[in-house]
Sequence to fold (202 residues):
Amino acid sequence: MRCIAFTGFLGSGKTSVILATARALGARGQRVAIIENERGAIGVDGPYLEAQGLGVREISDTCICCDLQSSLGHTVRLIDSLYHPEWLLLEPSGVAHPDELANTIEDDAMPGTEWRLVALLDAIRFGRLWADQAGLGYLLRWQIERAELVLLTKTDAVAAEQQALIEATISGVRPEVKIVPLTRSPEAGELVLAALEEVAAC
Fold:
């Protein structure tokens, strides 16, 4: 089972990207499951996803990578046994620390799973968040450090020069990481899948 964890702050576009990716996989005839971590107002809207025909197993009240470390493995195994998906899309809390999430995945033995961490970065807010090096900028840097793929969202809302500067900043942290600019287009899901397949082939 190919498992993709999408990190990113609230408003970075995780819900849209997860839905687009799930739809693209469904169009290929592949089974998809979604785990969402609902922490207050943060997280994927479970009822909305279910209305789109996408099954959701909610983990509530706290962060997957903190208090519920054991529940992640349990939930993945349960979904695998009940639905046998080929792909699993995980949406952790918008404030989840990527390093702790990665450690949770590594420590919680889940046989038969292949994990990828994907960071979603909001091009509109990137500069403001990045400047907060003691706070959200610190988390932003860790998202880049841990990601195998970076999705730069909302690029249609920034100037080309600003996008180039953001990409240069990301490459300065991780020269080898693949960066995919994304807008809300019908092709977004296929772009994400193509990038994931390229990363997996490396």
